């Protein structure tokens, strides 16, 4: 499967690694909003997104929906869950758009890691980076202000989309993601719009003064 062979995880590894990982792969076709796997279900497969987008999320104790990450074409999804001792998905996955991809088998991933130690080391490096990012995020969430968090989020999005932004989350989901109240998020966007920093509504925004946001976002960045 050429899509998996081009994934950074397999860079520098023999082509047979991709062959091992894609053995018994099942095609995945999902409509927008369709659940790909549920929280607590047995984790038998991880996913490779070919077209469309997917998200992993949980419902909080108060019923609020919290989206933790959005996955795009070419990305692997839920590979970490393949190594959890309890063998279950820790979150729910849902198609954000119509989606095509592949379900890759957990057992073949385990066997490939035993056969190809460099694959296991690359997976471990990726999981370690994810843990490091989460530690930084918790530190940032407990020490930064709401404007700093939102500015940092928008500037990260600007790197991928340019000055014309389409938010991948609803404003309520984004507020939960940033750990702020939805009313606070709405007020910040309205204030920045009044000040000429950005312009737009709902999910569509145009950045007019990146310098203002960049200065706010600087305090949220780590040196490495």
UniProtKB/TrEMBL annotation:
The answer, when asked if Metal-binding is one of the entry's keywords, is no
* Keyword vocabulary terms for this entry: DNA-binding, Transcription, Transcription regulation
Q: Which SUPFAM superfamilies match?
A: cAMP-binding domain-like (SSF51206), Winged helix' DNA-binding domain (SSF46785)
Spell out the molecular function terms from Gene Ontology. DNA binding; DNA-binding transcription factor activity
What GO cellular component is one of the record's annotations? Answer: cytosol
The cross-references to CDD domains, in alphabetical order and at most eight, read:
CAP_ED
Pfam annotation, one family: HTH_Crp_2
- The Cyclic nucleotide-binding domain sits at 9-111
Instruction: Specify the HTH crp-type domain's residue ranges.
Output: 144-211
- Tell me the InterPro entries matching this sequence: cNMP-bd_dom (IPR000595), cNMP-bd_dom_sf (IPR018490), Env_Response_Regulators (IPR050397), HTH_CRP (IPR012318), RmlC-like_jellyroll (IPR014710), WH-like_DNA-bd_sf (IPR036388), WH_DNA-bd_sf (IPR036390)
Q: What Gene3D superfamilies would the database entry show?
A: Jelly Rolls, Winged helix-like DNA-binding domain superfamily/Winged helix DNA-binding domain
Question: This chain belongs to which protein, by name?
Answer: Nitric oxide -responding transcriptional regulator Dnr (Crp/Fnr family)
